[in-house]
Design a protein that fits this description.
This protein is an all-beta fold. It contains no helices and 15 strands. The protein has a seven-stranded mixed β-sheet, with no helix packed on it. The chain has a four-stranded antiparallel β-sheet with strand order 5-4-9-10, with no helix packed on it. Strands 3-6 form a two-stranded antiparallel sheet. A hairpin with an 8-residue loop joins strand 9 and strand 10 (109-115). The protein is globular and about 55 Å long. 28% of the residues are buried.
Length: 183
């Protein structure tokens, strides 16, 4: 749950190759959701992918999230397309998204999600009463939908390297998923 009642990070897409088209582009995306029955003024709230730099993106004055509504923020540099653009992209290899309060109110961390390696064109979104993040199908602007998953018992060790040479600087273990669904 969030520290600030009602508004939360709801969905994050950090490897958008073709899932969410925005005016001819495929930017990363962050979705906020207002679960209250009242509009919420987001003016001065901040989003970042680096908690040590909470002001990477600040919502402009007059940004309001209506009751029971979603707001998509594009995680890219402003590119001439409509909407809010953070000025930073998300790392598909894993990182976090953090929502901070206005600096004038003390700048407290309101909500966050951290994630690992992201699959192409799948998002992470909150599901259930606890609001736990799980792998989801991108549904920006609507309720989150869980991504069906394959059986982890079907994973196989495909290759390993226990003594690195010139081709690979470290030991590694490669898993193979024979299923059509992610595991």
């Amino acid at each position: 749950r969030t520290n600030w009642p009602g508004v939360r990070i709801n969905e994050v897409l950090a490897n958008n190759r073709s899932a969410v088209l925005h005016e001819g582009t495929f930017p990363d995306a962050i979705e906020l959701y207002n679960e209250t029955d009242q509009p919420v003024d987001l003016s001065g709230l901040r989003l970042t992918d680096n908690p040590a730099r909470p002001s990477k993106f600040t919502f402009p004055t007059g940004t309001v999230l209506l009751p029971k509504s979603y707001l998509v923020v594009w995680a890219n540099d402003p590119d001439g397309t409509s909407g809010l653009h953070t000025g930073f992209a998300l790392d598909q290899d894993g990182e976090g998204v953090y929502l901070f309060d206005r600096a004038s109110r003390g700048g407290a961390l309101l909500d966050q999600v951290t994630f690992g390696l992201q699959l192409p064109d799948l998002s992470v979104g909150r599901l259930g009463e606890a609001g736990r993040f799980v792998l989801t199908q991108p549904t920006f602007g609507g309720p989150n939908q869980a991504q069906p998953l394959g059986d982890p018992r079907q994973l196989r060790i495909n290759e390993w390297l226990a003594r690195p040479q010139q081709l690979a600087p470290r030991d590694f273990l490669e898993l193979y998923n024979p299923a059509a669904l992610p595991v």
